[in-house]
Amino acid sequence: MNQVKSSPRKPVRSKVVTQEKIDKRIAAGDGQGVREEYVPWIKVRAFASRGTSHIVPGVKVNRVHHLLSNAEYHYHVILEQDRSIIDIREQFPLMPAAETHALASSLNVRPPVYPGTSVPLVLTTDFLITQVDSAGKERLVARSMKYAKEIEDASKAEQDRLLEKLEIERLYWARRDIEWKLVLYERLSQVRIRNLLILRSYALISPALVAEKNINRMLEVISMARTEEIPLKTLLLKMAKSLYMEYMAVKCLFFHLIWVGRLRIDLNIKIIELSKPLHVEVMSLGEFSSGEVSRHA
User: What is the pLDDT of residues 252-284, one digit of tens each?
Assistant: First the structure.
């Protein structure tokens, strides 16, 4: 009887975090860079999140985003649609870890460490956001996202520990004169989120569709229409006929113009439905060019 030789076993990689492993990640660029070059400190494949995690191609920044829950994903979509925001860095590490370790000690709380070690834990902020104001000046803001229910359902000890970590985070950013806030998912407009999830599919469309002549013709038709009196699909069909364009092309361009702000609707009142009227306003070039500072971040 022939014996089958077993393949040599690969060495098992230890999951215990060491300072050497952290230093290697830092040297490799993890948690560093801006816009397309940024590398999140935590990636979805390495993190088991409560809820649903997402690996999402960006529509504002041309890279993949790693979002650890539905709450993070939905907030990310809100940020992407805001024209005053030019960069979104998720899972941003608070480094050096020795600093947050020292902050914990100054608060007389137990410094966070990796399980089974004495290695200082690299804390992260869910979102580090770059905004541009109307004068063209950039500023950074930091945001952490939590479910209110997750906090409410936690034990007293868990709540206390969470508050300790959030205070460390707040102090870290305060030292850098960067505004930090905790965002509770339940306080976000769920209607707005639903609408933005619909519109996001049209954030990036064919360059041929966004030709200025197509945009101008569509804006002219909409400015003369009583959009609140007819179902949205009827409006789109009429525009397709008037503009000599395919229905789907008109629909894509229409939703794209809402996403980028050339057309304005109230995203918070009702969910966009083709079978129902939708009040739409055409933004003047002056209004569109001025933009606005984010109210969401």
Answer: 999 999 999 999 999 999 999 999 999 999 987
Q: What is the DSSP letter of 182?
A: E
Query: Residue 5 falls within a domain, yes or no?
Result: no
Q: Looking at the structure, do residues 227 and 152 belong to the same domain, yes or no?
A: no
Report field, pTM of the whole predicted structure over 0.85: yes
**Do 40 and 175 share a domain, yes or no?**
yes
Helix boundaries (H) for 125-246: 148-153, 156-174, 190-200, 212-224, 232-243
Burial (CB count <10 Å: 0-12, 13-18, 19+), residue 36 = exposed
pLDDT in tens, 48-88: 545 589 999 999 999 999 999 999 999 999 999 999 999 99
What's the CA gap between 153 and 138, in Å, rounded? 38
On the question of a cis peptide bond just before residue 277, with omega within 30 degrees of 0, the verdict is: no
Record the tokens describing residue 38, joined without a space.
């940024």
Q: What are phi and psi of 282, to 5 degrees?
A: -85, 125
